[in-house]
Design brief:
261 residues; alpha+beta; Beta-lactamase; five-stranded antiparallel beta sheet; two-stranded antiparallel ribbon
């Protein structure tokens, strides 16, 4: 695996931004600045997703509860809820799905309000995500201006992905629902860009803010499983970050096809 890590590190070092990455390749932990702390952008939505399913299992959240769109505060940025009519009715599970597959900020803020920020941060702590913290809602520009932001690291995101795909943090039923949501991701221009998603499982969650490009993914092929998290900030052009992350995704894809575990 040393050649893969070297190639990935070379791609990141050639990208004009601050970068970090972490990979778990069939249990082997590979790091390239994996403990670096970044503004999380929308990657913070993964621990929110985990918390929601955990709370649903405890009976504190009904995934089938109907939510009237007029009761969801519209926000800017990514998402589709802001384009729908106030008469639309969705379930909580629908909102969680939109939070991930189109990174809907209005859906995310509704979920944060419903569950409560303390419970989400309890999940983050319980998963051992030492560099991750939810401090603000999505598109809270005043908070960002005041220096209040959400943070994470590549290593933390890999641990978060592992909690979704394995272990006992949630039930098998919740796990399958989350994996199905991730696989329906609509933003696939980074890690999964070169991957044939009909040939292998690839479920990812991206994050973008000004000067920031992130992606993390669960990738499975036959009996092989890779968790990957790549984060880049201080970018003058977002295309530089997307190109670097998609190149790393291509490395993973080609190595899996070659049967390397």
């Amino acid at each position: 695996m040393n050649d893969f890590l070297k190639n990935a590190a070379d791609i990141l070092s050639n990208c004009p931004g601050r970068a970090g990455a972490c990979f778990s390749w069939n249990g082997e932990w590979l790091e390239a600045g994996s403990g670096e702390v970044f503004s999380s952008a929308s990657l913070i939505k993964l621990p929110i997703l985990l918390t929601a399913f955990r709370q649903a299992e405890k009976g504190n959240l009904d995934l089938n509860e109907k939510v009237k769109l007029r009761d969801v505060e519209k926000t800017g940025g990514a998402g589709v809820l802001q384009a729908l009519s106030d008469d639309a009715v969705l379930t909580v599970l629908d909102l969680l799905t939109l939070m991930i597959i189109v990174s809907d900020n209005a859906a995310t803020n509704w979920v944060i309000e419903k569950i409560g920020m303390p419970k989400i941060n309890d999940t983050i702590e319980g998963l051992g995500l030492v560099n991750t913290k939810l401090n603000r809602k999505m598109m809270d520009l005043d908070a960002i201006e005041s220096g209040i932001d959400n943070f994470t690291s590549p290593a933390d995101m890999v641990r978060c992905l592992q909690a979704i795909n394995e272990g006992d943090f949630v039930s098998d039923d919740s796990r399958q629902k989350m994996l199905d949501i991730l696989q329906k991701q609509q933003f696939i221009d980074k890690l999964p860009y070169s991957m044939d998603k009909e040939l292998m499982y690839a479920g990812n969650k991206t994050g973008e803010l000004h000067g920031i490009e992130h992606d993390c993914a669960i990738i499975k092929y036959k009996d092989l499983c890779v968790y990957a998290a790549v984060m880049i900030d201080q970018l003058e052009q977002k295309e530089w970050g997307r190109k670097a992350i998609s190149e790393i995704g291509k490395l993973i894809y080609e190595r899996l096809l070659d049967g390397h575990g």
